[in-house]
Recover the amino acids of this structure.
C-alpha cells in the first residue's frame, strides 16, 4: 500500500508566534482526516523545536527544508542530520527547485543530502521538476529521468518520498494538468526498484484543485507551498475528498 503524504512547505515564512497561532487554528480541523493520511509541515529551522513540541502526540509530523551531508564542520549557514534529529524532526525536503535555482544545489549535492537524511533516520522528500523551457522543448521526461537517476545513486528506496514539482507550476497558480502530472509520476515510478515509494505532486496545489489531483491513480500526495500557509486551507488539503 502506498502511503498518502500531504506536506506543507512553508519555505521562508512564519515566525514562532505565527507557527504557534497556525497550530492552534489547524488542529480542530484535522479531526475528520482519515488515519492513513500522513500530514507533514516542513518549516523554517527556527520554528522546528516549537512545532515538534506543540504537535507532540498529534498526527502531524514536522519536517525541515534542508540538511547538510556532514555531521558537523565548517559549513556556515548549514544544518546537519544529528541537529535535526535531536529536535525531533522526521522529514526533510531535499533538492527543492528553489535550492537548485538560487543556492547552487546540484544532482550530486542532492544525492549527498539524501544519504545524510537516511543515515540520520529522517525521511527525505526528494524534489524533481522541469522548467517551462524544458517542457516546451519536450524534454520533461529526459530531465526527470536524469534527475531521479542521479539523485538515487546508492539510496535506500524504503525510506523515501518523491515530489514531482514542475518549476513553472510553483507559486504561479499555473497548475500542471492533473493527467499530465499523473503521467510524469507514473514514469518516475517505472524507474524505481521499490514500487511502494510515495510520489507527490507539487505546484500550485490549493483547495480548489486538490480533489482532482488526489483522484489520479499515480499521485500519492501533495507538497504545497502557498496554500499550506493558512490553517483553513491546509486543513482543506488534508481533508481532500477521495
Ligand atoms: P506552491 O504550492 O506555492 O506553488 O509551491 C509549491 C512548492 O514549491 C512546494 O514545495
Amino acid at each position: 500500500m502506498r502511503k498518502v503524504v500531504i506536506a506543507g512547505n512553508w519555505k521562508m515564512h512564519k515566525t514562532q508566534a505565527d507557527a504557534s497561532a497556525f497550530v492552534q487554528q489547524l488542529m480542530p480541523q484535522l479531526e475528520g482526516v482519515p488515519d492513513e493520511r500522513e500530514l507533514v509541515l516542513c518549516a523554517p529551522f527556527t520554528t522546528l523545536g516549537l512545532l515538534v513540541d506543540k504537535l507532540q502526540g498529534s498526527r502531524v509530523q514536522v519536517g525541515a527544508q534542508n540538511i547538510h551531508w556532514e555531521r558537523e564542520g565548517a559549513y556556515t549557514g548549514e544544518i546537519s542530520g544529528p541537529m535535526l534529529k535531536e529536535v525531533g524532526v522526521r522529514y526533510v525536503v531535499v533538492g527543492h527547485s528553489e535550492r537548485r535555482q538560487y543556492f547552487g544545489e546540484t544532482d550530486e549535492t542532492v544525492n549527498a543530502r539524501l544519504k545524510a537524511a537516511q543515515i540520520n533516520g529522517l525521511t527525505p522528500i526528494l524534489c524533481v521538476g522541469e522548467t517551462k523551457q524544458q517542457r516546451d522543448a519536450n524534454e520533461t521526461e529526459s530531465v526527470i529521468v536524469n534527475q531521479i537517476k542521479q539523485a538515487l545513486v546508492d539510496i535506500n528506496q524504503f525510506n523515501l518520498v518523491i515530489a514531482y514539482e514542475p518549476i513553472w507550476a510553483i507559486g504561479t497558480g499555473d497548475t500542471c494538468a492533473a493527467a499530465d502530472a499523473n503521467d510524469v509520476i507514473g514514469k518516475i515510478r517505472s524507474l524505481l526498484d521499490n514500487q511502494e515509494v510515495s510520489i507527490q505532486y507539487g505546484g500550485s496545489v490549493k483547495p480548489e484543485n486538490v480533489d482532482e489531483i488526489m483522484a489520479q491513480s499515480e499521485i500519492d500526495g501533495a507538497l504545497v507551498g502557498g496554500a499550506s500557509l493558512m490553517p483553513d486551507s491546509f486543513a482543506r488539503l488534508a481533508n481532500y475528498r477521495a
Notes: Residues 9, 96, 165, 170-171, 202-205, 223-227 surround 1,3-dihydroxyacetonephosphate (CB under 6 Å). The chain has a mean pLDDT of 97. The chain is about 40% helix and 15% strand. Residues 107-119 form the longest helix (13 residues).
